[in-house]
């Protein structure tokens, strides 16, 4: 490496700065080749003949006398002073000078290092330009970030509005479904032997069920996105869930000509879960398996213990899922191209709902497929419960609701009247009124044993009416059922506080209503309830 260095002389002569040595009065003693080149002189034209100040412009000379020299005398050095020198051809050269005054033997000499100031200025200009460019880029980036933030806000707002819209839409769509369900019940009970009605009623029922299902799905997904879905968890055996789900889809599987194989472990797989919701999850997965598998396919449903967790697997040999869609398939409204023609009117929210419910249970779910045409598998995992299984509620034997007096209070006359008709066909003595005050008047007149109250009544809301019923003489014994379009837990809580015994969400599930009325009849009949049975039963 040392060989590669220039010899001292060459280094001195051709240094990247001009070098001068002068006596304290300015007479030049040495000058390197660099400064000679810059000024247009030969060294021997300068040495011993010219003083440093002779090379300066008039202004430079003045500055030398008033500033440079006194400072040198005072502190022995000056740094980075800017002066102008004259080239031999009289052009001006701007130079930056450092000077050190040093003792050599008996005398002092000034050692000067000179840099061309123009270069430094150009360099500083470049630096400034680069800084301005960087600042402009930074500002642009801040601007872009602010814009992105604003767009993000707008997107979140739009997303919130969409969620609110879906919640309101599903709620509004539910209202007209209530009277339609009741009307259908009436028609079904009256249609026997009617050749014109009998064939169309199943169509009506299927379509009504389908639309109710879609609206329910919409409602459920908005409950999940808005964090309003509350689970009613208890230790339960997943075997029960699997069996219930399989029974639920049996007709669909049959109609599609598929074969369903079920595998359950010998011992119970107990998780802390909401039986209804988990059954809904498995039903959704099985329904998809049936939908997205060509006729006469195979479906496998398995529950097993896997790596310390409970696992439910639903597998089919159907149309499969492309690799790149396996994760996004759980996003809301995601429907895949090859499946679209088979979606049979789905909205693409079933799997989003499934994932939401599974996650609320502290579990997870994933989809596996070897690709299009290679079948699909959904693996759902849930934490195992530490607790055992609680005693099953004993199913009550069917009891007739014959002659049970039921008051229906609803300002939607269609809904009230059709419900009364359906109740009458069951054998109840039912009566409809369309506002709360008329309803209260019926307490003494009609002496209802059960009353179904709409919450959104015109003269006072259903909660207030329930409080007044409870305060009335005969009010304590009446079974009060709230019927609302909203099924949030806060609504249910409010209903409970107001004195309701049950809460039903519209459209009213007629089977559920019938169960409640059966129990009302059972408890209000002279038969003493079985010991251990909770007399004050509630369906909330
Ligand atoms: P929907 O069935 O109403 O379209 P889902 O959320 O249940 O909505 O399913 C979303 C999409 O996932 C479906 O449209 C379909 O493309 C795909 N998919 C779901 N289950 C299966 C399956 N078992 N096999 C193939 N594709 C499926």
TrEMBL record:
Chain positions with 4-aspartylphosphate modification: 454
PAS domain ranges (all copies): 19-56
Residue intervals of the Response regulatory domain: 405-521
CDD domains: HisKA (cd00082), PAS (cd00130), REC_2_DhkD-like (cd17580)
Enzyme nomenclature, EC number: 2.7.13.3
Catalyzed reactions per annotation: ATP + protein L-histidine = ADP + protein N-phospho-L-histidine
Any coiled-coil regions, as ranges: 120-161
Keywords from the UniProt entry: Coiled coil, Phosphoprotein
Domain of life: Bacteria
InterPro entries, A to Z: CheY-like_superfamily (IPR011006), HATPase_C_sf (IPR036890), HATPase_dom (IPR003594), His_kinase_dom (IPR005467), HisK_dim/P_dom (IPR003661), HisK_dim/P_sf (IPR036097), PAS (IPR000014), PAS-like_dom_sf (IPR035965)
Histidine kinase domain: residues covered: 168-386
UniProt xrefs under SMART domains: HATPase_c (SM00387), HisKA (SM00388), PAS (SM00091), REC (SM00448)
Protein name as catalogued: histidine kinase
Species this chain originates from: Massilia soli
Source taxonomy: Bacteria, Pseudomonadati, Pseudomonadota, Betaproteobacteria, Burkholderiales
